[in-house]
Amino acid sequence: MQSGEGLGFVNGLRIAVMAVVLLLVSLVLITLQLVALRFDWPLRRRLPRHWHRIALYCLGIRVHAHGTLDPRRPLMIAANHASWKDILVLGSLADVVFIAKTEVSSWPVFGTLARLQKTIFVVREEKRRTGDQVNEIAGRMADGEIVVLFPEGTTSDGNRVLSVKSSLFGAAAAALPKDAENAVVHVQPVAIAYTRIQGLPMGRYHRPIAGWPGDIGMIPHLLGVLRAGALDVDVTFGETVDFRPGDNRKSLASHVESRLRDMLLAHLRGRHRR
């Protein structure tokens, strides 16, 4: 009993220390980011990556990257989506911009962080605004920013890839230069797999610790992650698809879904070499 209480105290102390460290670092980086945004410094694109890396360290999440990010532009990343932690994971690997549902902008803390990273907020239910939203995404890509799309449209339990929706792939079509020969937008599938907990393989039963289907509150889930200890995440950069004028969005969505599923299952079943 004493041993259990002792472990509980140590774990609680660790959580408290990490929370304080993350809070202090966040205050410093948020201040710098506000200034960088105000004066449009290039630093505004790089600061979020540093914050994501520090946040992952405090949460005990280790990221293992496989493959490389395509250096060509315009580039859209299409990734599977299991949790809010996916944003930290991808944000730690590259200077990216995320597409999120508009409700996120009003979330305490997380909404502020999303706005500071210049997240693109979309209203999925209002079809009359789809054109404006697609044009904003296309404009950011045309400016050389890497846009991250979670084409499943929601979070899963981390064990599978849900059906990929083709609608927002319209941004890839809108980003095609109208007056250039051989116009192309590069779409790179990226699979995120939560594979180990405290160094041991994570089975289907424990993967909800990493995944966030949405029926659990943000704070309880965050505390559960902190209590769980070290998590390992494998991120695989797949082969890029070149999307050209006249190409079909549904075909693109089908291909991306197939690649994401293959890459995810390869990690979950232990078939991918580290």
Automatic annotation (TrEMBL):
Membrane-spanning ranges: 15-37
Gene Ontology terms, MF aspect: 1-acylglycerol-3-phosphate O-acyltransferase activity
UniProt xrefs under Pfam families: Acyltransferase
Residue ranges of domain Phospholipid/glycerol acyltransferase in the record: 75-195
UniProt key word rRNA processing: no
The organism's place on the tree of life at top rank: Bacteria
Keywords: Acyltransferase, Lipid biosynthesis, Lipid metabolism, Membrane, Transferase, Transmembrane, Transmembrane helix
Annotated GO biological process: phosphatidic acid biosynthetic process
Keyword Acyltransferase (UniProt): yes
Family matches, as InterPro entries: Plipid/glycerol_acylTrfase (IPR002123)
PANTHER family: 1-ACYL-SN-GLYCEROL-3-PHOSPHATE ACYLTRANSFERASE, 1-ACYL-SN-GLYCEROL-3-PHOSPHATE ACYLTRANSFERASE-RELATED
Protein name: 1-acyl-sn-glycerol-3-phosphate acyltransferase
Species whose genome carries this gene: Rhizobium glycinendophyticum
